[in-house]
Write a structure and sequence with these properties.
The protein has about 400 residues and is α/β, with parallel strands linked by helices. It is about 35% helix and about 20% strand. A hairpin with a 2-residue loop joins strand 10 and strand 11. The relative contact order is 0.13.
């Protein structure tokens, strides 16, 4: 029998998230996290399927040590990296530029291209590369697959992907809309179609991925035609700490009048803006508690957040022409009923409405929260990026017979 397990790795600058899945039944065999890599005291939490979590703290100086620790924990459950049942390792890679349009089996040429994209993803691609190189060193015989956050959005037409700046300058510096959270948008749009009992190619969906990072996408027949994040994850919706859309001249103003450096402005817009900048909190639960207590600053932050969200729903309705469903996902989208209700309030003329009773029910599965006779379905669809990465990795490896070709580098 062919091996059916896939290890999914999401390597950050100081952390490694992982899941081991068996694709025969889409079962999770183990999940875990190594955090504070390189700090004085690191932490690992490991949870096997059907078992109790194990945690330990100690020294994890680098990603190589982190993956060795992960392998050791998996081995305790009989799931070690040396298992013949392990078919591949799937890696989340944030930025694939225009070159990578599909999951790609990693070789030296692919690694070099991911490294070449570091200038457009300086915070993410280096960490992703470290995880890939470490995993390849541990299992050089095993197919390693890169699944790119940007890949799902490469189907956008040029009219959506290009910015209206000098073409030669844009091309020289690879400036365009790339979009992110692609594995989530792909998974949720497909699961929304399944929830409606229809094929993805027959369904138009607006996906709202609302977490600390937030993005919207317009998906026509299973293909992304527009998305809110751009060259970087800064553009678009109001987020936990990111500003989202604003007049680019604000940057020049802060340089000339505020005397701020480029690095200071970068920190301001990415880490001290969004909900945090508006009211000092980026946790929607705390913001709603403050709103209910009469806190005007929290109320304004909530209203700005919702105003931007509604603008994107309306804009993507116009882009798609026909909308079959609006799907909420990620931490806020799945859990904050007041956000979902407020996002569609007043949009009844577009066929959008939320049933208060259905919206208030908490659940783990995909569900409709719109009235039965609604023209446009409103859904809550829990995202599962790890499952999407594992599914794409396994399909590629099985389809290619486990070869180590370079996939779709164009």
């Amino acid at each position: 029998m062919s091996p059916t397990r896939v290890l999914v790795l999401n390597s950050g600058s100081s952390s490694v998230k992982y899941q081991l899945l068996d694709m025969r039944g889409s079962d999770r065999l183990a999940v875990g996290l190594v955090e504070r890599i390189g700090e004085e005291t690191s932490r690992l939490k490991h949870t096997p399927a059907g078992g109790d979590s194990r945690e330990w703290s100690g020294s994890v100086p680098d990603h190589a040590s982190a993956l060795k620790a992960v392998a050791a924990e998996l081995a305790k459950d009989g799931l070690g990296l040396d298992s013949p049942e392990l078919a591949a390792i799937g890696h989340r890679v944030v930025h694939g530029g225009r070159q990578f349009t599909e999951p790609t089996v990693i070789d030296d040429a692919v690694l070099a291209e991911i490294e070449r994209l570091i200038p457009v993803a300086p915070l993410h691609n280096p960490a992703n590369l470290t995880g890939i190189r470490t995993a390849r060193a541990l299992r050089p015989d095993l197919p390693q697959v890169a699944v790119f956050d940007t890949a799902f959005h490469t189907t956008m037409p040029e009219s959506a992907a290009r910015y209206a700046i000098d073409v030669e300058t844009a091309d020289a510096h690879r400036i365009r809309r790339y979009g992110f959270h692609g594995t989530s948008h792909a998974y949720v749009s497909r699961e929304t179609a399944r929830l409606l009992g229809r094929a993805p190619e027959d369904v138009n969906v607006i996906v709202l991925h609302l977490g600390n990072g937030a993005s919207a996408s317009a998906v026509r027949g299973g293909r992304c035609v527009d998305t809110s994040m751009g060259l970087t994850p800064l553009e678009g919706l109001v987020m936990g700490t990111r500003s989202g859309d604003m007049d680019p001249a604000v940057i020049f103003h802060l340089m000339r009048v505020g005397g701020m450096s480029a690095d200071e402005i970068d920190t301001l817009l990415n880490k001290r803006s969004g909900l945090t900048g508006l009211c000092g909190d980026n946790d929607m639960r705390e913001i709603r508690r403050r709103v209910d207590a009469g806190d005007e600053r929290a109320r304004l932050a909530f209203d700005i957040y919702l105003h931007r969200l509604k603008k994107y729903i309306g804009a993507y309705y116009a882009v798609l022409g026909r909308v079959d469903a609006v799907a909420f996902t990620a931490g806020v989208g799945e859990n904050a009923a007041p956000v979902r209700e407020a996002a569609v309030a007043g949009l009844e003329g577009l066929g959008l409405a939320v049933d208060g009773g259905l919206n208030a029910v908490r659940g783990d599965g995909a569900r409709l929260i719109s009235p039965a006779d609604a023209r446009v379905a409103v859904a809550v669809v829990p995202t599962d990026e790890e499952m999407e990465i594992a599914t794409q990795t396994y399909a590629l490896v099985i389809g290619s017979g486990g070869s180590a070709g370079s996939g779709n580098l164009t």
